[in-house]
Amino acid sequence: QVHLVESGGGLVQPGGSLTLSCAASGSIFRVVAMGWYRQAPGKQRELVATVNAGGGTNYADSVKGRFTISRLNAMNTVSLQMNSLKPEDTDVYYCNGRIYSTATSWDDFWGQGTQVTVSS
Questions:
Q1: Measured between alpha carbons, how far is residue 53 from residues 31, 39, 59 in Å?
Q2: How far apart are CA 35 and CA 48, in angstroms?
Q3: CA quadruple 8, 42, 59, 54: dihedral positive or negative?
Q4: pLDDT in the model for residue 114
Q5: What span, in angstroms and rounded, lies between the C-alpha atoms of 31 and 50?
Q6: R_g of the chain, CA atoms, integer Å
Q7: Segment 17-53, tens digit of pLDDT
Q8: What separation, in Å, do the N-terminal and C-terminal C-alpha atoms of the chain show?
Q9: What mean pLDDT value characterizes the chain?
Q10: How far, in Å, CA of 26 to CA of 20, rounded?
Q11: pLDDT at 75 over 80
Q12: pLDDT per residue as tens digits for the range 102-112
């Protein structure tokens, strides 16, 4: 089994910064990609940013230039640096990992979610 543990959410004023971290542990054979998604109540979960094993990144248009995703520790840990935060960034943020548990078996794993609230 693979577990993803997130940290770093909280309350911040508009224009402020937060850093989210996510660590993957357990039966990890190979990490294909890790990333962050967010979801507001009653809405679909949406992509925020991803980074693959080759270092390639992908960002939602709404966060480009403000958020930076980075991988650490041979891809088992990713961080999301969020700058110039806006009230519309308020959501529950979920860490995702597309991970092979064995040489042939992969799955999408999710963290428990961390609340980010941007408010004055």
A1: 7, 25, 16
A2: 8
A3: positive
A4: 96
A5: 12
A6: 14
A7: 999 999 999 999 999 999 999 998 899 999 999 999 8
A8: 40
A9: 95
A10: 20
A11: no
A12: 999 999 999 99
8 has pLDDT over 70? yes
Q: Name, in order, each residue with C-beta under 8 angstroms of 106's C-beta and a sequence gap of 6 or more.
A: 32, 98, 99, 100
Report the alpha-carbon distance of residue 32 to residue 75 in Å, rounded: 9
Q: β-strands 114-118, 91-100: how paired?
A: antiparallel
Per the structure block, which two tokens stand in for 24? Answer: 């993957």
Size of the chain, expressed as the number of residues it contains: 120
Q: Are 48 and 111 in contact (CB under 8 A)?
A: no
Cβ burial 34-51 (10 Å sphere, 16+ → b, else e): bbbbbeeeeeeeeebbbb
* pLDDT tops 80 at residue 73: no
